[in-house]
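#structure-requests
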Amino acid sequence: MIRGMETHKKTSLIFHGHFYQPPRENPLTGIIPKQPSAKPYSDWNERISAECYAANTDSRYLDKNGRIVSITNNFEFLSYNFGATLLSWLYDKQKGVYEKIIEADHNSIIRLGHGNAMAQGFNHSILPLDPIRAAKQQILWGLDDFSSRYQREAEGMWLPEAAINQTVVQLLSEAGVKFVVLSPWQCKSIEGTDGKMVELNGKPAPFDKPFILDGDKGGSVIAYFYNPTLAEGISFGHLLRDADNLYTTLQNIKKDFHDPDLINVATDGEIYGHHEPYGDMALAALIRKVRDRDEFSLTNYASFLEQHPAVLHAELHKGEEEKGTSWSCSHGVSRWYKDCGCHTGGEPGWNQKWRTPLRIALNNNADRLSVIFDNRIKQLFKTLTPDELLDQYGMVACQAISMKNFMSDLEEKYPEIHGHTHEIAAMLEGIKNKHYSFTSCGWFFNDLAGLEPEQNIAYALYSINLFQQYSQEKLIPLFLKDLQKAKSNDPSKGDGMTIAQKILKGISGEVEACLYFILNQRIAEPELKNYTYGRYQLLNYTYGDDFPQLNIFDTISLRTFEVSTIVGDGNNLSSFEFYMAVRNMDDNTIQKISVNNANIPPRMLDEAYSWIEHSLSIVGDMELIQIARNIAHYSMLSKNSKYLPMATLFIENIGTCLRALRSHFYTPNTLQWNTKKESIKQLIEFIKKRGRVSEIEAIEQIFSEESRRIAKKIKKDGLTKATLIYTNNFMTLTLNEKIELDQKSLQDSIYPYVIQKIPLDDTLQDAFKNLKTLLNFV
């Protein structure tokens, strides 16, 4: 071989992203409360989705001038897992993002023969700390969630916090899981080529091959150990700020380890855009470099395993108290049950002694509920066992089928439960919320009074609420007594009992739903009337002489509530005070509650204001023209004048301009574009010259919303001639008026036409070429 002409084999490359958010909703309603810390978004799911999940489904690759060269769905080239709670939220709130995540898995199967997606433990509890029965349900429900969404069986499973022990290995094996991904520091020893186990003695496990892990009863799964240097560089060393630097790092690893068969790395998925801004674009650039060059090939774990079967064994560390190990606690899994020293944030001198009593309180509650459930199910069913029922319920827990359909099928198969379906549904919903109360985030951070522990306590309280009527024992006092032993580091926050009592003082789910329906039915225009609020459905709403009447149906637990009366000045919103008598149809109890403006949750209030804004923005064609003319006259008279009478008229004009501007886009009108354009320009000119920062920002918001509306129309109906002409006109106006708007969704909607994935009529090519330029494509 001629010197300098040596050839190198391609190295398989796997980047894995663990994408997960804990369940965040109010368990009483199924709605996520507004989270001010997530500004400018309503909650952290929305914010992280914009910065990461959605960004990675349509990630930009730019040229040196900042123009778009290509848009990549990174999930087609990234190994990934999404937790069931996050996928449920995406399906409900951001269906387009959800569909692209699922589509990416299907496309990776076409490319590699195996899908990129992996399953995950259902709601991210720490499996080694779960009782075997609960751990099994977490695994099976996670697999149910995966198969229902991706329409295939999962081959691998991401373990929450990579937490594992031999019992978990056995459960995974019995469930049919083939492989997992672990930290290299969790491995104690590996098998040598001579068949003998070799102690690693603090060295990381090899990242270039899979290993076999044995369970405690003869089962086994395959384990991949990721490259620690690469993982740390991506997560903490800002490698995602420069794709060239990241690629050079991969080249160096390849060289240092003499052309390994595999380089694999696993990190939190949120690093790709949320923790590291624009990290998705670095990943897209890396994907392009790998595909354009001949040193690496992007693959996934299942595909690599088929080509390189595991033949050597590995043994894991036992962890403290031999409970297991994880990737984020150097002690094992201690971070989730005791004060081991691992934490995130907090003040000097704080401790995490609260972790142990919190877990004990939740464990004791779970044990009590399990006993009630088992005893009652055994009484109701002749042949179906409690565990068999829970296994079947997994498809309801992951929302693949509705509780109503599930209970209907169950009653048909087991007629002996006739008349008890509501009871069974309520207990199953209680068991699911019991599982939610063990979500790992509740122990991860620095203090008991944080959002995550409070969320876990709220789920436990809701599970108790669903079970209480089936128990002679008072369950809440028992739970509060245990919680009292968990102390916050902040004396003003009290203890676990204090936190639980604060939650218990809140209004019930059905009362909050009533509040919503009252506001919606009275304020919203007909096109914005809603008949569902989270888990509640409005059956009827009628005005009486003195008060309205409501019926509300709980669609999740199949428990029906009736608000018999709302006593008070029901037709006068000036004071907004109502007295509700809530009748629970299951046990015929009545709850009397007074509600007023203070009970309106911030998210609900935002929506109510949007109804008012919509109503105010309904302006007729002739009025729009007249408003623009009057604003032009006002501007003419006030130009260069030091005398401005009627100061209130100036304030009114700003509001009128915004109202008219919204109407141009929000409500249908028949104005020709040139007339519409001139009116819009006059309105914008006045607001920019006379308005405050918030009012100028409102212009950008209005135009961004119109951009997103156009994008939805294109995705739904295609890029028609009329839409193409309007979009060109809209974008030209936007650029001429120097309006900063969010055009990402509009760019995404036309990209299939840019790459000719969707053909476009020849007569539209010139107009489309212009639109490409306006939308910043090369």
